[in-house]
Amino acid sequence: MSRFWVDTVRALQPYVPGEQPASRDLLKLNTNEHALPPSDLVMAAIHSVGPEELRRYPEPTSLGLRQAIAEREGLDPDQVFVGNGSDEVLAHLWLAFLSGRSVATLDITYGFYPVWAELYQSDLHLCPLLGDFSVDVTALEQVGTAVVLPNPNAPTGRALTVHEVEQIVSADDQRLVVVDEAYFGFGAPTAAPLIARYDNLIVTRSLSKSHALAGLRVGFALACADLIEGLNRVKDSFNSYPLDAVAQAAATAAILDEAWLEAASQSVKESRSLLESGLLAMGFEVQPSEANFIFTRHPQLNGERLFESLREADIIVRRWSGERIKDWLRISIGTLTQSEQLLATLRHIVASKAG
Fold first, then answer.
1. Cα–Cα distance between 151 and 199 in angstroms, integer?
2. Distance of CA 65 to the CA centre of its chain
3. CB 3.0–4.6 Å: which of 16, 45, 195, 242 could bond 253 by disulfide?
4. pLDDT in tens, 55-103
5. Contact (CB, 8 A) for 12 and 118
6. How many helices (H) and strands (E) in the chain?
7. Are 143 and 127 in contact (CB under 8 A)?
8. How far is CA 108 from the centre of its chain?
């Protein structure tokens, strides 16, 4: 370790992202990228960015993009904050509102939350999921701290209803509730309409999954104007130009192309249904998913060995070593063809293990 590291950095356990293999011969189902390419309008917007726009700094407030998001969500532009991916938005949010404070989240959830809690010296309280991996809404209503949770949850894919989210938000208007909707667009309801009634709610989103723009890095937050101003104060003290000209143009086109979002999301749902049915037919247990991935295990097969068997067949999925989920795999939803390939491989693996 460097002798120049400060104590906070020395103690950090950084988030480990999913593997990004160099080979394109692998079937990559481990990081929940969208199965389809982006909208044609997005690609046209990227190509429309000229040399003069690249020579100059981008518009620092991303006004055009914020206006498009606001119109889509029935909000005002000053209720929208944009950043370089929703991870950056959440990091700014943590610094602005949660640093040095107590925060509750789920015991099985997105692995970046504990990292931000450590980085910004928050006391993190983990609320256990119930036996079926559903969220204990009553526990989150009663916890006396700010709450951060994804909806749908990751890696389980299970989603709360808007009513359940509202129960958590309305239980105490003196605490902040952050709903991370990184997997918006695949069936789960959004909590965004609640913003009109609750000034203690922030909803964050990413265009990485819903709009097939993981390589572009655009995320945003929706909240009352006062909370958004707090985020802007952090952003402008960190990086006044988080979104470049290409990202702003492409993201705006993506938000405006609602027909693509509807069709692409339907495609993912169809592939998810096919994969779920195929897994159940082989004896797998499958969590109900409203995301572009499935959380599954086979009761007779060791999760680590199954993971390695898939890797040997050039298929990458995601796995964690935590005691409750060590035998579960998270499988990103691919195309129908990719889902059939995965199922065929799993049938071979299950048959060989059973024999």
1. 19
2. 20
3. 45
4. 999 999 999 999 999 999 999 999 999 999 999 999 999 999 999 999 9
5. yes
6. 14, 13
7. yes
8. 14
